[in-house]
Amino acid sequence: MSIAIVYGSSGGNTEGVAKLIQKKLGVEADLIDIGKADAGKINSYDKLILGTSTWYEGELQDDWAEFNKDALELEGKTVALFGLGDQEGYGGEFCNGVGTLYELSLKKGAKIVGDKNSTEGYSFEESKAVVDGKFVGLIIDEDNQSDLTSSRVEQWVKSIKSAF
Ligand SMILES: Cc1cc2nc3c(=O)[nH]c(=O)nc-3n(C[C@H](O)[C@H](O)[C@H](O)COP(=O)(O)O)c2cc1C
């Protein structure tokens, strides 16, 4: 089974969390910057952890936005999602990018795991990353709650480990 952690990161925060996930996962997983990869490369993996930050009031990070998502093949693949945002600065569209990746993964027939995370401890008005009252992936806020990042990553990785 080949595993990749695929991230889009403009300032390095999402990249940092991707590295943390890689470290805590405890199995071999390649780190891929979506800005430097094509769909063929990503399609060659069996299992994927996809991450994005949110920009421009609710949009996917630039490299994800420009990436040819139509060519992504996710049918039957195990997929987990994570994302970064700023709940104080952008509380009306907090981590919407993760919601966009969730919709994309669902549409493409992925088997999504790690998608029922509590919103407790966060403070925001609205987020596309919330479905049925739960975050559909790991949600990290380096701008306001960086002290919680390590424990949030650890807890989430524990919850998806058996699927990877
Ligand atoms: C211009 C700008 C727009 C942003 N828009 C959003 C947003 O709509 N929603 C959100 O949750 N965070 C938003 N953020 C916060 C970033 O997602 C956050 O700082 C993140 O950690 C950046 O990660 P990166 O360095 O991996 O790109 C925005 C930040 C900036 C500077």
Count of spatially separate domains: 1
Computed over alpha carbons, the radius of gyration is: 14 Å
CATH superfamily: Flavodoxin domain
CATH fold-level name = Rossmann fold
* CATH architecture title: 3-Layer(aba) Sandwich
Low-confidence runs (pLDDT<50, min 5 residues)? Answer: none
Structural class: alpha/beta
| SSE string, helices as H and strands as E | EHEHEEHEHEEEEH
Summarize model confidence as the mean pLDDT. 98
Q: What is the helical fraction, as a range of percent?
A: 25-40%
Question: Keyphrases for this structure?
Answer:
164 residues; Rossmann fold; globular; alpha/beta; two-stranded antiparallel sheet
Summarize the structure.
The chain is built from five helices and nine strands, in the order βαβαββαβαββββα. With 164 residues, the chain is of the alpha/beta class. Strand 7 and strand 8 (134-135) form a beta hairpin.
Descriptive notes:
The protein has a single domain (3-163), classed as Rossmann fold (3-Layer(aba) Sandwich), CATH 3.40.50.360. Helix 1 packs across helix 5 (149-160). The protein has helices at residues 13-25, 39-43, 62-66, 96-107, 149-160; strands at 3-8, 30-33, 47-55, 59-60, 78-84, 111-113, 130-131, 134-135, 138-140. It has 164 residues and is of the alpha/beta class. The chain contains five helices and nine strands. The mean pLDDT is 98. The strands form two sheets. Strands 1, 2, 3, 4, 5, 6 and 9 form a seven-stranded mixed β-sheet that branches. The protein has a two-stranded antiparallel sheet with strand order 7-8. The longest helix is centred in the first third of the chain and has 13 residues, at 13-25. Bound molecules: flavin mononucleotide. The site of flavin mononucleotide has 22 residues, from helix 1 and strand 3.
